[in-house]
Write a structure and sequence with these properties.
The protein is about 35% helix and about 20% strand. It is an alpha/beta fold. It has one domain: Alkaline Phosphatase, subunit A (3-Layer(aba) Sandwich). The N terminus is likely disordered.
């Protein structure tokens, strides 16, 4: 009997110690032991390049994203898995890599390509969070609806969101113009309306005892470049710089390029010709205006967290779903394997842990899911293929991995600290094109050195790493 009591006492003591350690672990992140798990505000911005102040870039004005960065860690070498909206988001929200048949195009559904996989929102919902999706989160509103406690919210109206009658008429006949400038308040467009609703959600959920996971998906700066006039006025047309390398990279294969059909489909765009400089400046002005419009909406969310005293118990994640081209290598939009399409911003702010730091660790979008699990104390689903970024959030000098991988149709890419290597293979696995760029000596990727004899050993090494991922 005494031995049984002693054994029970020992087990009880072990349990108490374990619970105390778990409590201490949470308190190191959020101060004193919180009454509930930390909230998560997940902001995803469509087509956002890392051309932001916090990334040391010029021209584009982003004070609110920069403000978030001052409280967080900026990941300078973050790479999407697929440079197209639907596939990128499906991979991100399941934590699973793409392959030749999974997560391929913009019309990808996570629930179809990865049936049975638990999504990020669903995982938080199953673990006691009130989950909400507003705006463009998954590419399709009806994808993985089990992820959300409340029905997904999308403001009414056509996704192109024109406000001027002449543009709406053009849309009904054709596809409408590539940009619109309206002298109106922010709420005239879908992103403003979506943020209005998200703010009301935060106010409502702040009064409950349940933690929230809110995903807010901003459509801008996706085409068409529609934004209120005050954001256009921030960028005088005569001060807009064109891409420094508006030419095809030397020795790059034809497979690396596309005809930027997404942009050509809009009214007034050249159908086959190259982009004229005056039109290029107008489009860049419109992209910047939309990015600053999105930045202002993000600022409204950050203001609300502070106003409601939620900042100290809310993790904020911000990312663009992939990069975007503004004339580099003659390309516009995404859909390619150059760094301009594959690299995107990731910023993570964790109360009590992060503060105005930049991490040069290679990072992949599939790392977000396991990171948020670690930050909130949730068990990781077995499907996850990324690595937690939590060590780099605690110490920005730590490198999580030595390579990041992306793919688009036949192209598989690997990014190391110094190089970006891409190869195109057919259905039988035979390589029919490749390119290699040395980011130390050629950061803009203007000269493909994949066929240089002195690069053969490196190309073979990178190819083997790609083969491991493909298998």
């Amino acid at each position: 009997m005494n031995k049984q009591i002693s054994k029970r006492s020992f087990l009880k003591t072990v349990c108490i110690v374990f619970l105390c350690l778990a409590s201490v672990n949470l308190s190191t992140v959020f101060g004193e032991t919180p009454k509930k798990r930390p909230n998560v505000l997940f902001i995803i911005v469509d087509d956002l390049r890392p051309q932001l102040g916090c990334y040391g870039q010029k021209q584009m004005i982003s004070p609110n994203i920069d403000r978030l960065a001052s409280d967080g860690v900026v990941f300078s070498k973050a790479y999407c898995q697929v440079p197209v909206c639907g596939a990128s988001r499906a991979s991100l929200f399941t934590g699973i890599r793409p392959d030749r048949k999974r997560f391929v195009t913009y019309y990808t559904y996570a629930q179809k390509d990865a049936p049975g996989a638990v999504t990020l929102g669903e995982h938080f919902k199953k673990n006691g969070y009130h989950t909400i999706a507003n705006g463009k989160v998954f590419h399709h509103d009806d994808d993985s609806t089990q992820s959300w406690t409340e029905p997904h919210f999308e403001p009414t109206g056509h996704w192109r969101d024109y406000q001027l009658p002449e543009n709406i008429e053009l849309q009904n006949v054709n596809s409408g113009p590539a940009y619109e400038n309206v002298d109106a308040e922010d709420s005239i467009y879908k992103d403003g309306k979506m943020i209005d609703k998200t703010i009301e959600d935060i106010k409502r959920l702040a009064k409950t005892d349940k933690p929230f996971f809110i995903a807010a998906g901003l459509r801008k700066p996706h085409l068409p470049f529609n934004a209120p006039k005050k954001y256009w006025d921030m960028y005088p047309l005569e001060k807009i710089d064109l891409a420094d390398n508006a030419f095809r990279a030397k020795d790059a294969p034809d497979a690396a390029f596309h005809g930027w059909h997404e942009l050509r489909g809009y009214f007034g765009m050249p159908k086959k010709e190259e982009m004229p400089d005056d039109l290029a400046r107008k489009l860049i002005q419109g992209y910047y205006a939309c990015a600053s419009y999105a930045d202002a909406q993000i600022g409204r969310l950050l203001d609300m967290l502070e106003e409601l005293n939620l900042k100290d118990n809310t993790i904020v994640v911000l990312l663009g779903d992939h990069g975007w081209n503004l004339g580099e290598h003659t390309l516009w939009a995404k859909h390619c394997s150059f760094n301009t399409s594959l690299r995107a911003p990731i910023i993570i702010s964790v109360p009590g842990m992060t503060k105005n730091r930049t991490s040069d660790s290679l990072t992949e979008f599939i790392d977000i899911f396991p990171t948020l699990c670690d930050l909130t104390g949730l068990k990781k689903p077995v499907q996850l293929q990324g690595k937690s970024l939590m060590p780099a959030l605690k110490n920005h000098e730590i490198h999580i991995k030595d390579a990041a991988f992306s793919r688009y149709h036949d192209a598989d890419s690997i990014r190391t600290d110094r190089y970006l290597y891409t190869e195109w293979t057919d259905d039988d696995g035979k390589c029919y094109a490749r390119m290699l760029y040395d980011h130390q000596n050629d950061p803009d990727e203007n000269v493909n050195i994949a066929e240089h004899p002195d690069m053969a050993k490196l190309v073979n090494k990178l190819k083997k790493k790609l083969d491991q991922i493909r298998k």
